[in-house]
Request: fold
Amino acid sequence: MAVAAVAVLAAAPQAVRAQAYPSQDIHFICGYAAGTGADVIVRFFAEKLRPVLGQSIIVENKPGAIGNIATEYVVRSKPDGYTILVTGANSVAGSAHLFKHLSFDPARDLRIAATINRATMMLGVAKNAPWKDAKELAEAMRKKGDKASWAYANPTAKVLGALFRERAGLTSTDVGYRSGPDFLNDLTSGVLDYAIPDNVQAMSQIRAGTMRILGVGSDTRMKSAPDIPTLTEQGFPMDVRTWWAAMVPAATPKPIIDKINAAFARVVDTPEARAFSATIASDPWFITPEEAQDYFVKDIARWGEYVKIAKIEPQG
Reply:
């Protein structure tokens, strides 16, 4: 009886906190700079979740170290549901293999509170480039050899670009940039032959008339961009997906995680959110926190293989 009483008393504060949640401002942490594709996604969902949660949501940009500055900030924050990392969960999974000495363990220290959408990186060229599809690009790049060059601005883009290079039998040189907008001028001016933009940048540049997309890196076409063929169907098999989620410190009480999950569910399934997802070529994707955590752990393992394929040397 005494042990049971202690357990009840220990659980009581969590139950009270969960019942009161949310009762103050919530902070959405973005691991990339303001104005980037990631920032656009975070701010959209912050705006739509404010009336659902009944509290102000403040977006904080903490760029650097491929998003790890923001991730570590959330890992070290109080596990009370008021500090939420809204990010590409695939990038967090990749960090487990991209860095030799992380200050946190993604699988141990984080929990997925909600999934948001799935998308993929894309293969893009300048609007005036002569190649109509990925096969034509690959043929031209083989002739150009190691003088061919391509841009990426995050690890997932580098993985997709490396897979394309391998599948196409190229020796093209990869050039890393801090963000997608940074390589746009070099692409449109002809300094670069092709690039691997994220879905947000790709769709915005299509609308701006500065870039053409030759293929997507998922093994099936995106529902939100059905006219863009996959690289797989063009003869370069791969399936590299990005997926967005809301993540919290692992010690966050389950009732609070469930409340965050329910709030995102109400927004992700709205016509407005589906329309927003379509504009950035992402497909709404919502599963339970338990299913999401399992997918996250498996994605960490997948990234171990991606890093080997792309021959990425882990950072110190």
In short: The longest helix spans residues 289-310. DSSP finds twelve helices and eleven strands in the chain. The radius of gyration is 21 Å. The mean pLDDT is 92.
